[in-house]
Design a protein that fits this description.
By secondary structure, this protein is α/β, with parallel strands linked by helices. It has six helices and eight strands.
Amino acid sequence: MDWSQEKAHPFGQFADSSVTKRRLHSLSLSYNGGKDCLVLLILYLSRLSTHPFLPSALPAIYIPPSYPFDSVTSFTLATAQQYHLQLDIHSADDEPPQAAATGKGKGAGGMKEAFTQYLQKNPSVEAIFVGTRRTDPHGGRLSAEGFDVTDGGWPRFMRVHPVIEWHYVEVWAFLRHLKIPYCELYDQGYTSLGGTDDTHPNPALKVEGPHGEVRFRPAYELEEDEEERLGRDW
């Protein structure tokens, strides 16, 4: 078993169990076009490739940031079509009136509302696959088994995070080994994608030329997990 098989093994165990115990319409995927979600999507599709009753499109939710990059949006929509996702778009800015009145609708509150709306529209969904890794914000609190039921006032569903223990370099090794196309911003030095208001090329990849010109090496040349979010403001 090579490293990719070993990393994917927990995913396979849960995916196989989920597909046999639940109908596919009860499973969904949180997809935003980022590198981790892309790995998750490829693993998910590989597990479903031999399923005898595949639907024409797989349920998925996309929650864009308040100020999305055009290239990320274009990539997300294009790959959703390419990989046959039934992409349901819910904005984190669509907060309920009480949240808007208190100014607490952004961030986690807005995400909660987005998932609430999605589950109200898709009541059959019981579990949602997410691309969270251990070094992501709040990733340290998630179980090593690969799934956690939501809590803390979130709408109830099973969060499945099969790439939780993947390291940054392993994500890129997987994508590049399989020659999976990815968002062009990663080749411009961006290593963690949010919105245009809080995301910048990673300074750890900055290269200055002899005449002061500045460029950034591609994201896959970064090696340390702890440096992945140096280009983010939060």
